[in-house]
Specification:
The chain is mainly alpha-helical. Helix content is 65%, strand content 0%. The relative contact order is 0.25.
């Protein structure tokens, strides 16, 4: 069993990438608040998911939206 096996389909990865692009600059736009850093953290997780194609929450729940 591979740790970073792709378990997301392409449209889902693109959507996660777009959302991550909006969340990553939150500390610059909103200032250095805890809320902004939490949004940035969520954005980085989504960016990792979009680039790698592997969602760890999906892995734990046994979900696989990839058609391969």
């Amino acid at each position: 069993m591979e740790l970073f096996k792709t378990n997301q389909n392409k449209p889902e990865r693109v959507l996660r990438f777009i959302v991550a692009l909006f969340l990553l600059p939150a500390p610059i736009v909103l200032g250095s608040t805890l809320y902004a850093f939490i949004l940035c953290g969520i954005g980085s997780i989504l960016l990792f998911n979009a680039v790698s194609g592997a969602c760890m929450i999906y892995k734990v729940l046994g979900v696989d939206t990839c058609n391969t």
